[in-house]
Specification:
Layout: H1 13-54, H2 60-87, E1 90-93, E2 98-105, E3 108-115, E4 123-126, E5 135-136
Antiparallel strand pairs: 1-2, 2-3, 3-4, 4-5
Helix pairs in contact: 1-2
Length: about 160
């Protein structure tokens, strides 16, 4: 589900920065879980492929347990994304740990772009652009170049 910037909360740079400890924690859990799920799915696929070649039916129960765990993990992953969405933060890439904070920059709707591990929010990109189009804030512009007059939408 995609939420447009126009329908969501807008962050000032200060507000987005203040939320980084919580966002970082949730995002770290999200990335870790996603990576673990990818690894388990690959292993499960290999085991099933080998098993079908040998026509062995041993470990059926264990394989079903792994599949059930993956389903539960998928629900947990979804809940992390929803938790970030409830905060007004848009997950832009789970594997890369990239999020966007909807904002207004010089009258333009943008995302303040942040990647897990970066020390601060230092980039932005247009609403219809991606991570590869991130641009740094202008060095001559004060830290609060993002319009802070936009009020947060109530949930």
């Amino acid at each position: 589900m995609t939420i447009s910037v126009a329908d969501s909360r807008h962050f000032s740079l200060d507000q987005a920065t203040a939320s980084l400890p919580l966002v970082s924690s949730i995002l770290a859990d999200l990335v870790e879980l996603s990576n673990a799920m990818v690894t388990r799915r690959e292993l499960l696929s290999q085991v099933k492929e080998q098993r079908s070649k040998n026509e062995l039916r041993i470990y059926d129960e264990e394989l079903q347990d792994v599949e059930d765990c993956l389903k539960a993990d998928a629900e947990r992953l979804k809940s992390y994304v929803e938790e970030l969405a409830d905060l007004g933060v848009h997950v832009r890439s789970i594997p890369d740990g990239v999020v966007g904070f909807p904002s207004v920059l010089k009258g333009r709707q943008v995302y303040l772009s942040w990647k897990l591990g970066e020390p601060q929010i230092a980039y932005w990109h247009g609403q219809d652009e991606g991570f590869e189009n991130r641009r740094p804030f202008e060095s001559s512009t004060p830290n609060r170049m993002v319009d802070s007059t936009i009020s947060s939408a109530s949930s």
